[in-house]
Design brief:
Length: 737
Amino acid sequence: MFGLEILAKAWDSSNSRSFLLEKTAFGIYLFVLCTGPLLFGGVGVYGYTFITLGVLLASLLVLLKNVHRDPKTKSLQFQALITPLNVTFLLLFLFLLFQILPLPPSILKLLSPEAWVVGEKSLPASTVGGDGSNHAWFTLAPYTLPVRMSLDRLTVYGLFFLGFSQLLNSRQRIGTAVLCILFLGSFEALYGMIQTFSGNEHIWWVRKTAYRGDVTGTYVNRNHFAGLLEIIIMLAIAYVAATSETKKKTSNFSRHRSFRVRLSGRLFGEERFSKRLVVLFSAVVMGLGLVFSASRGGMLGAAGGLLCAGLLFMLRKGHRRKGLIVLLFFVVLCAYALRMGVERPLERFRTFDISFEVRARYAQQALQLFEDYPLTGVGVGNFRYAYPKYQAPEDTKTFIDHAHNDFAEFLAEAGIIGFVLLGLGFLYYLYRTARLWKGRHDPYAVCLGVGPLAALAAIGIHSYSDFNLHYVTNCLMLLAVMSVGQSALYLERHHGWDKSLYSFLRRPLFGKGALVFFPLLVLFVLCVVSTGRHFVAEAYLQRAKILSRQGEPGSIEAMRKAGAWNPSDATLRHEMSLHLKESRNAGITGNDGSSRDPKELQREILGTLEKAVWLNPLVEEYHLSLGWEYTTLWGEPDAEQRWMPAADLSMERAAYFAGSNNPYLHVMMGDYWLMRSKTVYPGNPLWEVALAKARWHYLKNLSIETGKDKERMAKYMKANVWVHYPDVEFIKRILGQ
């Protein structure tokens, strides 16, 4: 408190403090917003870390700017911007926090019975004997790390929207932001078209391996590249309309001029049109990039957004002619596209029905996941881990990390409660924005106010068949367009001066204001720490993989450091177990040159895998690996009472989380139960049970596999059964022949 008081006094001595903080924060926001997409769309850990820390730094400056001394009371005050999305951000944050809070069994069983079942299956199989503890507390989200990372992203999005909206307090600032965004979109489109049409298809120094022949800019995925462009195109259309000339009285002389002369006067008569022409040209360039990305969802989304913009212009008397801008954009875009050739984009629409059927199947299976977690969801970010259990037979050999339908995926991850909170929040935002837009008469505000609504319509249509909003760069760009439109609606111009009509919550810093300021400061610190730990852990993981690939020592130590920096990451634990097993199988010594005790190494492998299962019980591979590792303790005195039952339980858990349509799992399970039958005498009831399970899994695999894969697996099964039971009749019995 005392340190903050001293800092405030130092700020008070300079009248330019607020302006300096504003200008610096605004520059950082724009820099991050316009350079993030250039880092391969911000998908890598380096790009994500850069974007997150950049937004947090700018938001910290805005947070400090909002601490000031009241001129009347001389006390420190804190102000917070009030927007229609404040309540939405807060409610979603509290909901995500609720998903990762341990709950008592009675409450958890009431809210999510499936989460309770999954929680029991996360307990170490070697200690629970198959039942778990009825007194353990588990969370609604079986794997908490993705939810915590979603909390970090939500914090970044909220701080960016509030900070950027507050700084767009003049037409000059809004114009600067819009032109920077349009420059980014134009560069992405031009760079992508140059790379594609020249035949030298690279993303910077990396050769493209996917979507060759399609324009992707600096993005890896053409659909997410198209998502970025469709958002920016909506902003460009709105800005062209906002900077157009106001309606003037037309003289008799001007009425009698030719159409060509009048059009030339309108287009080239003023300096403002030069800017308008550049903006319209950039929109055409981005439209071409969108078309030649061959993203069907992107083209349909952009068409829907433009339709929304046109309808909104038609609703306002005095702005109906500006709908011609949309028509002119379509005409110019089509002329350029036909000139360059649109065979490939149109060709993709011929297979639209097939692609739509596949994505509809993903969404339908995601709804089955929702049915198991109806109220609170499986946890935001957990779709990729929970979905394999519900995967359709047609997709058994495809890794599906997203439902290709953001609505279905969010419903599965957040349940009815989370979906309703998000839906009501955005409906409230749309209501407030539409009401404010309807009451404004300033052409600048009216036209730019169309931008967010059109962008939301475009990305909403595209999100029905894709997952654009899982890209941090596209989400920030959408929030930036929403900030621009909202700031323009709250902006009024008097005698050449701009005045923002935003409302602020103002409270004493050491009173009620502390309830807002200090939680935001704590969130900022926690988000920085979490992002930094994640970055360092990923760096150590990459180092471990490089050392292992090169056959050099030190990979295990690097993996241990990665796990220490991010102890909640189950993937790191599993990777660690793989490195340890490689060391065990190869007989590699420790870093100091001394050989390790095999039993000690085996205990570390088991402990690492049990930790991975505890952190994320949804992944069947963790249970499968753990079950096989338990079988290596067959020689231990308590093997029959402890380790083999634990292996059985792990295999049953693997089957539970993998579902019935995973051919790889059925082969592994068949091999396990076949091996398990050899650990007991034929008179033991477990012998018949084990053989029955082996037979069921083998036949299930053969019912899923087709063609040469089925023939190959049948030969493998025959050979494997022969190793354990060298009898032709027995093989027929097991394989049902």
